[in-house]
Specification:
This protein has helices at residues 10-21, 33-40, 51-61, 97-106, 126-137, 155-160, 172-181, 183-187, 197-228, 232-240, 261-274, 283-305, 333-343, 356-362, 372-376, 389-392, 396-400, 417-422, and strands at residues 2-6, 25-29, 64-67, 78-81, 115-118, 142-145, 165-169, 192-195, 314-318, 347-351, 367-368, 381-384, 407-410, 426-429. The chain is of the alpha/beta class. It folds into 2 domains: 2-195, Rossmann fold (3-Layer(aba) Sandwich), CATH 3.40.50; 229-433, Rossmann fold. The strands form 2 sheets. Strands 3-2-1-4-5-6-7-8 form an 8-stranded mixed beta sheet, with helices on both faces. Strands 11-10-9-12-13-14 form a 6-stranded parallel beta sheet. Helix 5 (126-137) links the parallel strand 5 and strand 6 (142-145). The model has no long low-confidence stretch (mean pLDDT 98). The structure holds uridine-5'-diphosphate-xylopyranose.
Length: 433
């Protein structure tokens, strides 16, 4: 099929490449000329495992092109809108200006019978509003909402082999067109749920709200463990054996971050308030508050570990990206902790296998090092805040030979406390004795 993907960020660049990989003829549109040039040259503007390979093969095959000109989307039968919906400055609501602008810019280019498919995460009610707008200007075109559940780090796999497909549609025709787009996944037996716009929009925010709640639940248990001497990791293992609960997404630590969960739960709460049902998801405010308290907890532990002040003390921060296998530092708990410690006067050196460049753009005041060794050298305290495999595999004896004080805060509960304590380290986990 002939497809356009409007917006080539984390979501759109992967979606465009994956659609071309599946055999479609794709044009990716973005207003950022530098980004478009990089993508066209086969270079993803961010780190995502597997993306360089499919991007290069798709651009080389001629099935994937990129452009800054919306007119190049004109020939497509299906247009995916994959632009960002960040938090609005000064409020918790989603900022819809990029979605609205993408639809408006696309309208004059819609061919007879084209389908416009929203993939961006939007407040419930947006799709119906945009469908009405499309009907006004291009009556033969239709609108669907097809939320995306991809995880950064697994984005290519999640796009090519999704665990479910959700189509919010206004008519059956839209569903049959999407079936052609996703033929490979459907033939492989991927569950497909066809529903109205409002349900499809809510599926996405409900899924993220549930995941965020699960993480904050276990982090709340970590807080109780901290005042009662219990071990939250064993607690998670034990309750996780109950298949109704499940062990996944029950890792207590410094909490969730990234470009999705934090802003999506805030936007959901804000939208529910607009609809007069703020009380229904009022718990999401609590989920957010618990999450942010864990960052503060790591900072407080650091101050305690250094005897009441971090001023002028060298602290090695392992990790700045919001999770491993990503260079994304948006709302990253790791970077937040580094910035707070720096604000308290510490001599912070932060490292990360992929995230330094993005972190430096946001927080040039921090010192960064690409080398773990150099980061650890002469540190009086080590704070592990992103569980990259190389940090999880650190050897306590070797690391002990580099630092000037054997103190470590394991902000992701990924190290073995016994092994670290056995080599003379003071080990502090979150929610662990
Ligand atoms: C999330 C959703 O998983 C995805 O379905 C949606 O489309 C976008 O948002 P992503 O932001 O890539 O994906 O990250 P995810 O893997 O969900 O992790 C989110 C955050 O939660 C990370 O900061 C991670 O470190 C944290 N987390 C995750 C925990 O603190 N504990 C856990 O047990 C799991």
């Amino acid at each position: 099929m002939r497809i356009s993907v409007i917006g080539c960020g984390y979501l759109g660049a992967v979606h465009a490449s994956a659609m071309a990989e599946l055999g479609h003829e794709v044009v990716g549109i973005d207003i950022d000329a530098h980004r478009v040039a990089e993508l066209a040259a086969g270079r993803p503007p961010f780190f995502e495992p597997g993306l360089p390979e499919i991007l290069t093969s798709a651009t080389a095959s001629g099935r994937l092109r990129f452009s800054t000109d919306m007119a190049d989307a004109a020939g497509a039968e299906v247009h995916f809108v994959a632009v960002g919906t960040p938090q609005s400055p000064g409020t918790d609501a989603a900022d819809l200006r990029y979605v609205d602008a993408a639809f408006e810019a696309l309208l004059p280019h819609l061919a007879e019978g084209a389908l416009v498919v929203g993939k961006s995460t939007v407040p419930v009610g947006t799709a119906a509003r945009l469908a009405a707008r499309v009907a006004q200007v291009a009556p033969s075109a239709s609108v669907a909402w097809n939320p995306e559940f991809l995880r950064e780090g697994f984005a290519v796999k999640d796009t090519i082999e999704p665990d479910r497909l959700v189509y919010g549609v206004g008519d059956d025709h839209a569903a049959s067109v999407l079936d052609l787009v996703y033929r490979a996944a459907i033939e492989a037996g991927t569950p497909r749920i066809v529903t109205d716009y409002a349900t499809a929009e809510l599926v996405k925010v409900a899924a993220n709200a549930f995941l965020a709640t699960k993480i904050s639940f276990i982090n709340a248990m970590a807080e109780i463990a901290e005042v009662s001497g219990a071990d939250v990791t064993q607690l998670a293992d034990a309750i996780g054996h109950d298949a109704r609960i499940g062990r996944r997404f029950l890792n207590a630590g410094v909490g969730f971050g990234g470009g999705c969960l934090p802003k999506d739960i805030r936007a959901f709460a804000a939208r529910a308030e607009e609809l007069g049902r703020g009380d229904s998801v009022g718990f999401l405010r609590e989920v957010d508050a618990i999450n942010l308290r864990r960052r503060q907890r790591v900072v407080d532990l650091a101050v305690d570990a250094l005897g009441g002040s971090v001023n002028e003390r060298k602290i090695a921060v392992l990790g700045v990206s919001f999770k491993p296998d990503s260079d994304d530092v948006r709302d990253s708990p790791a970077l937040d902790v580094a910035v707070q410690l720096k604000g308290l006067g510490a001599r912070v050196v932060a490292t990360d296998p992929q995230g330094i460049e993005n972190a430096r753009l946001r927080h040039p005041q921090l010192e960064y090092s690409a080398s773990t060794r150099e980061t650890l050298l002469d540190a009086e305290l080590v704070v592990l805040v992103t569980e990259w495999p190389e940090y999880c595999a650190l050897d306590p004896a070797e690391a002990g030979g580099l630092v000037s004080g054997r103190r470590i805060i394991d902000g992701r509960n990924v190290l073995d406390p016994r092994a670290w304590r056995a080599t003379g380290w003071s080990y502090l986990g979150l929610g662990r004795p």
